[in-house]
């Protein structure tokens, strides 16, 4: 079997696993609980040696590194940057044509815009594909954190809000623990992406 065929089969399997995990956690509470229990066998020792907010910080670092590596090696960043520049130029030209009242130029640009839809669709697929790979690691980690927090009462001090139970919600469906994870992940991801020379999309 050729290397390319093996690589395609591996990619197909990984995409299938990632998609199955995403669908599974959306439709089945039992599946979410089962996944949390499985991951607890792997990670359950961490809160015994580290404060849980530090554990969440470590998870943010792991998922940030993993996601950045996946994006670096599954996306054509040169192509995406070129398309971004093309789109910016198109928007600038279209705006200028509108301000100048140049109807003929606007019609030409609208034809060009329809031709660009294929490139936009390719960009969308390119950006969505890594999500399935990323989910293979991030979804089990999130399910473990969710299960652990559901079974333990944990408090954390936040600026302006004071001491809060991390299982409570900040706003709508957003939990304090996820807010803390998100705040931790931003600087970590930016540092990693800078080091890997990949941009934000």
From TrEMBL:
<feature type="transmembrane region" description="Helical">
    <location>
        <begin position="131"/>
        <end position="149"/>
    </location>
</feature>
<keyword id="KW-0812">Transmembrane</keyword>
<feature type="transmembrane region" description="Helical">
    <location>
        <begin position="49"/>
        <end position="69"/>
    </location>
</feature>
<keyword id="KW-1133">Transmembrane helix</keyword>
<keyword id="KW-0472">Membrane</keyword>
<feature type="transmembrane region" description="Helical">
    <location>
        <begin position="12"/>
        <end position="29"/>
    </location>
</feature>
<feature type="transmembrane region" description="Helical">
    <location>
        <begin position="174"/>
        <end position="192"/>
    </location>
</feature>
<protein>
    <submittedName>
        <fullName>EMC3/TMCO1 family protein</fullName>
    </submittedName>
</protein>
<dbReference type="Pfam" id="PF01956">
    <property type="entry name" value="EMC3_TMCO1"/>
</dbReference>
<dbReference type="InterPro" id="IPR002809">
    <property type="entry name" value="EMC3/TMCO1"/>
</dbReference>
<dbReference type="InterPro" id="IPR038978">
    <property type="entry name" value="MJ0935"/>
</dbReference>
């Amino acid at each position: 079997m050729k290397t390319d065929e093996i690589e395609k089969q591996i990619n197909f399997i990984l995409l299938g696993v990632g998609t199955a995990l995403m669908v599974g956690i959306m439709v089945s509470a039992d599946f979410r609980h089962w996944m949390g229990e499985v991951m607890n066998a792997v990670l359950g020792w961490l809160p015994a040696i580290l404060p849980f907010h530090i554990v969440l910080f470590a998870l943010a670092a792991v998922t940030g590194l993993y996601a950045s590596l996946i994006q670096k090696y599954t996306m054509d960043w040169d192509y995406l940057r070129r398309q971004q520049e093309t789109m910016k130029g198109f928007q600038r030209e279209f705006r200028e044509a509108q301000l100048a009242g140049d109807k003929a130029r606007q019609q030409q640009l609208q034809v060009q815009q329809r031709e660009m839809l294929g490139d936009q669709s390719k960009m969308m697929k390119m950006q969505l594909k890594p999500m399935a790979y990323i989910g293979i690691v991030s979804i089990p980690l999130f399910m473990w954190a969710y299960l652990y927090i559901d079974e333990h009462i944990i408090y954390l001090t936040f600026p302006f809000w004071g001491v809060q139970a991390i299982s409570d919600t900040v706003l709508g469906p957003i939990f304090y623990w996820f807010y803390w994870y998100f705040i931790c992940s931003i600087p970590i991801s930016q540092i990693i992406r800078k080091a890997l020379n990949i941009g934000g999309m």
